[in-house]
Amino acid sequence: MTKGIEVKVLIGLICLVAVIAADQLSKYWVLNVFLADQAGVRFGEYFNVVRAWNTGVSFSMLNNYGKGGAIALSVLAIGIVAMLLYWLKSEKNKLIQAALGLIMGGALGNVIDRVFYGAVFDFLDFHIADSHWPAFNVADSCICIGATIIVLQAVVAQFKNKEK
After folding, report:
1. Which of the residues are catalytic?
2. Which of 30, 75, 93, 106 is disulfide-compatible with 142, CB 3.0–4.6 A?
């Protein structure tokens, strides 16, 4: 392995580990300290911290498949992480390397929940009146941020190519 590849992998792996740590620590703290025995805490008109368990994927899709669904989703997530690691090994753009780390860390953070709890713990609840965005967590946020970075970088690259 050349030094260039090591640095590329290192940037992504640092992001991956940081996301897993932030995700798992935040979930532990919210579940066991902040909420303790409460179902939720309201912060103003638009935000709550809640206790929500998601057995499905994003926005609670595929939420009714029990333990088999949790296993299938975990295997799928690990497969996606493996493909992203392969991409990371050859990626030259440092921002994309970090974005891949965010996505992989988020995916693995949620896999950890599925393995230990059979569901993903979500606690961030934004809403307007009675209209709630599905609850989410740090891992979900990092997946979205990483994916957004990759999409925006692709759009910028398209514009640069058209200018040439």
Report:
1. 122, 140
2. 106
